[in-house]
Structures are given as structure tokens and as C-alpha cells.
Specification:
Order of helices and strands: HHH
Number of strands: 0
Number of helices: 3
Structural class: mainly alpha
Strand content: under 5%
Radius of gyration: 36 Å
């Protein structure tokens, strides 16, 4: 059975060709050991890169999402203030109708009011036993249980 027609095909034939061109058995062994060390080194490098990717890719995604969250939170407020400034500039500029020169101040007030409403909602104590962590404040009556309702506690 020839090496070129059996299992392995052209790869096995190339190995036999290299072995035939070698001048000594030591050279064949040296090439074989070099191939084994190269394969082990490649596997180790691939494993290290894979372990690094296990930490780097989720961390990068987390940092990107935090950046987008901050951009969406502050970017929306900045857009409102920017539109207020543009409206104020257009209203007092040449050809303007002087309809709303204080729209910039109003835009800043709207953004601050929005922040205040958000902070008031976040700082409100949640006392719900029906939908926890939603902030509804709706309690389902639980008669017959041994624990006291929140209104009955002293």
C-alpha cells in the first residue's frame, strides 16, 4: 500500500518526501521533534489567547454598555439644552420674532426638573409586597398570616 493513495493523502506524501530528502536519521528526528514542539507551542498560545478573551471580551462589552448608558442619560439632557439654546438664539437673532428669548433657561429648567423627578422616584422607599422593586407602593392584604402589616407596626 503506497502512502500517497492511503490515509492522509498528500500530507503523508510530503512527510515521506521530506524524510527521503533528509541526509541522516538525526535530521528526520530533529524535524519531527521541531514539529511536535511547534504544535505544543501553538496549542499553548491558542489556549492563552482563549483565556484572555474570556476576560477581555465581556469586560470590553461591559465598559461599552456603561459608556452608552451614560451617553444616553446625559446626551438626552444635553440635546434638550442645545435645542433650547438654538431656539433662544433664533428668536433674538436677525429676523427673529422675539417669541421665546428665555427658551434656553426653560430648557435648563426642564432638564433639572426631569433629574429631580428621577431622583425623587429613586429615593422613595419601596414598601410594596406585591411588586417588589417596582415602586408601586401597592400592598396586597394578607389576612391570616402571623406577621403584622406595615400599617400595624409601631
Amino acid at each position: 500500500m503506497s502512502a500517497s493513495g492511503g490515509a492522509g493523502g498528500p500530507r503523508v506524501r510530503r512527510l515521506f518526501d521530506r524524510a527521503a530528502k533528509a541526509e541522516s536519521i538525526g535530521e528526520v528526528i530533529f524535524q519531527g521533534l521541531g514539529a511536535v514542539f511547534f504544535a505544543v507551542g501553538s496549542a499553548l498560545a491558542s489556549g492563552i489567547f482563549t483565556l484572555a478573551d474570556v476576560f477581555i471580551i465581556p469586560t470590553g462589552s461591559f465598559i461599552t454598555s456603561i459608556g452608552e448608558l451614560i451617553d444616553s442619560f446625559i446626551g438626552g439632557a444635553a440635546m434638550i439644552i442645545n435645542f433650547g439654546a438654538i431656539a433662544s438664539a433664533v428668536s433674538i437673532g436677525p429676523g427673529g420674532l422675539f417669541a421665546s428669548p428665555i427658551s434656553f433657561v426653560i430648557a435648563i429648567g426642564v432638564v433639572l426638573l426631569g433629574f429631580y423627578v428621577l431622583l425623587a422616584y429613586i429615593s422613595e422607599e419601596d414598601t410594596s409586597n406585591f411588586f417588589p422593586l417596582i415602586g408601586t407602593g401597592f400592598d396586597v392584604p394578607t389576612p391570616g398570616f402571623l406577621d403584622a402589616e406595615e400599617e400595624e407596626e409601631g
